[in-house]
Amino acid sequence: MHAEFRTDRGRIRHHNEDNGGVFENKDNQPIVIVADGMGGHRAGDVASEMAVRLLSDAWKETTALLTAEEIETWLQKTIQEVNKQIVLYAESEMDLNGMGTTLVAAIMAQSQVVIANVGDSRGYLLQNNVLRQLTEDHSLVHELLRTGEISKEDAMNHPRKNILLRALGVEGKVEVDTFVVPFQTSDTLLLCSDGLTNMVPEVEMEEILKSKRTLSEKADVFITKANSYGGEDNITVLLVERDLTQKGRDAS
Asked: What is the pLDDT of residues 223-245, one digit of tens each?
């Protein structure tokens, strides 16, 4: 597997509350993670850092999970435990009250990839030169769009666009979506925070992924493009290709 991770503060925010990286278990099986913290400086930082650290630490202690079913079970159970720990920590620190974080993570299983998500950080797959969003935003605006109360155009600039219906660290139990999709050598997986998707149209994201650039160059272009369109939020991008000859980069 070849992975490239990038995170950037953006042009408006004073701090970067995004986090993520690429981490391996005892059998060198990778997990890739992106988290977007909420609750303001420090609170958002703490929530996203905790989510990534706790999930990756748990993964580092496992041995290889070979089937998609095993991976889904592990993700569901472990993310629930991560959520509980974030909630408990927030309750113990007054200045962290109200913090939370999105989470999107992926683990490879033979010719498949298993995705888990909570919140509005997204997972996409470029397959046969077509970009497809795998995850569903757990946000108020997405729910209004799904029920037909607003149009896609309305959703782009809705004043309550940032209100999440699900996040880690908010309640004692959280509903986690998981997906299993084919993942072939020619495919590219993209995990990202909304600092990318709110700035760069999907048609342009698809063009970047289909280009002849290297994976590293594509990751850099995503950050540059989001900033050129305003960089209104922190921007995090994690790109994955099934290439066993190269290793990826973690958040450090």
From this structure: 999 999 999 999 999 999 986 44
